[in-house]
Amino acid sequence: MTSNIEISKLLGQKSPYKRKPRTRKSDFMNNRLIVPGIPVEFPRPKYKTRLPKFEIPLKLKRIFVKSESDALSTSELKDLQLDNSSNYEKFFNTLLFAEEYQLTNDIMLYDQEGVEMKKKGKRSPYFTLQVPGLAEKRPSVIVGDHVFVVRCGEDEKGKAYQGFVHHVEETSISVKFKKEFSRVYSSNTKFDVRFTFNRLPMRRMHNAIKCADTIKRLFPSNEVRTPKDMDEIMQRNSFKAIDKSIENNKHQMRAVILIKQELYHPAPFIVFGPPGTGKSVTIVEAMKQLLDEKENVRILACAPSNSAADVLLMKLSITLSPDKVARINAAYRDIKKVYSDNLREYCKGLDLKSFENHKIIVSTCITAGAIHALGGRKNYTHIFIDEAGQAMEPEILTALQNASKDTKIILAGDPRQLGPIVHSSIAKRLGLGKSLIERLVNRENSPYDFSETCTYGVKLRMNYRSHPEILRVPNELFYQNELEACGDESIIQSLLNSNALHKKNYPIKFVSVYGRDMQEGRSPSWFNIDEAAEILKIVRELVEKDHVRIEDIGIITPYCKQVEKIKILMEEHNFDGLDVGTVENFQGRERPVILISTVRSTSKNLKHDRKFCLGFLNEPKRFCVAVTRARAFMAVVGNPNLLFLDDHWKRWLKEVNIKGGYIGTFPKETDDGEEQL
């Protein structure tokens, strides 16, 4: 048995936390001769239109440099809101500029002074640079980005060398320079490094929000069109499901029928898919039915992330061949590493001729903007956006550039779960973090009421994932108790006698841990050694006593540094391969067993967490995602006194305590609102 002392030595603070400045000491690029690097050799698409620069106006830069409160009180921002389609372009241009300004500052966190680079091999053209905080992806660095390096101590006449990123690992990048760099390089030479922000996705989004015709469709009339006899429509348009798993689910079947009937057009159709209800299965079935029934159908299927787009591809590939479906990837993705042999056959480059005859095109929303720039005809009959709740609205517009006035738009997602990741507190306050689905559903007099007679959308209600007790509280707090637990009993009841449970037949456990939350080095992320030790204890019980497979366990925590520490601890104890990640990593995924480390143990800096949407407290959507991933068993470790400050966690803790799954002293109710969030 490993002692807590040994765990502390393994995971303890390597160096004191020292906040890294977000401003550069000096712009060492000024007046320097720049030696160009060697770009990654991507195939160059033949775009028909030139993408404008969309530089941030100087006037807005002067506003964004102010504090959040001062910026929001300026005449340019204080009355800025999305009233209707007429001010759409100005509204989102401003918010995107605010987000870009923040990301440009955030990239400075990767800047380094006096560091060494290692050559990957004597004859290798690549140099490896360790980048603390890279795994946190705030922001991301991708293949094709570039850095500038200057030898330490060089005056302003010294050269700056541009290096292009050719490989990205968990905590390092591989950079390629021109041969001239070798003249100043040695293994112990120290360099100053400056990172640059890749503006291309932002430029694509700016370009997209000029599509006036499509934008008008995103403000549907409040006049609800209700058919005379919905039952008759359902009966008259019944169909034989290709995916037999949906045959007995009336909500999924109804969604497919309504998508095919197109009564919602020109407004978007919404498939509201709470956790575990099969929204991706539903829209894939709709795509296949459309292909079977209509000869001239051509579908663009998008998602905000590559992983979500790949899920669509996998589901489509079960019954559709590579001559019907094409997966268009961004040039920086290594297809050989990402896909198995059979899925690789579906992948095409950004060359119009290679996919113009395919019936279904799958891509991310941003890559769909590149497809639009190729200049092909807008001949898509339908555009489907999966995980639309995770995309910024301009991101969805980037895909919708490919729509004509006749194109049907279908959005699938859950406005109750995590929305898009937004880094700028100003942009967040003004609404960039609100997804298109959330905006449409929450509009006053919205036609999206998801009633039995609604033709604009369907809410799925049968949850195939979780044990009823795991589903109980989130169902009450977020879904009006409309979800019905329909999971496979052989899975959801498989651990009711687990040694890891506090109370047999109750699949939830909470363990009170009053640990210390810490930071280290230059990383602002938090970790908690005591909670990591408790997670290890539970994993041991599950694997060694209950014989649960490693691949059936997922560990969720809101902080990247805790992810890192838990991975180290698990590998040290031969639990390699355990899936450990942040809440964002786990959205859309599930495991029979989910263990959650909440990390924070002191109220200090909670306002900072709240401002930047970190952690679990006062983050209802993050809470909702975390507690709806488990199928058969869920354990949470954390400081109950801190969690009790949050209404959602308080309700959950009370339920677990009543049912007998709570370990530790239960917090006392208090009227003291000083620390309430």
Structure description:
One of its GO terms (molecular function) is hydrolase activity. Keywords: ATP-binding, Cytoplasm, Helicase, Hydrolase, Nucleotide-binding, RNA-mediated gene silencing. One of its GO terms (cellular component) is chromosome. The chain is α/β, with parallel strands linked by helices and 677 residues long. The protein has three domains: 208 residues, Rossmann fold (3-Layer(aba) Sandwich); 168 residues, Beta Barrel (Elongation Factor Tu (Ef-tu), domain 3); 236 residues, 3-Layer(aba) Sandwich (Rossmann fold). Helix content is 33%, strand content 17%. The protein is built from 26 helices and 26 strands. The strands form five sheets. Strands 1, 2, 3, 4, 5, 6, 7 and 8 form an eight-stranded mixed beta sheet that branches. It has an eight-stranded parallel beta sheet with strand order 12-11-13-10-14-15-9-16, sandwiched between helices. It has a six-stranded parallel beta sheet with strand order 23-22-24-25-19-26. Helix 8 crosses helix 9, helix 14 runs parallel beside helix 15 and helix 20 crosses helix 21. The protein is globular and about 80 Å long. It starts with a helix and ends in a 14-residue tail after the last strand.
Quick summary:
The chain is of the alpha/beta class and 677 residues long.
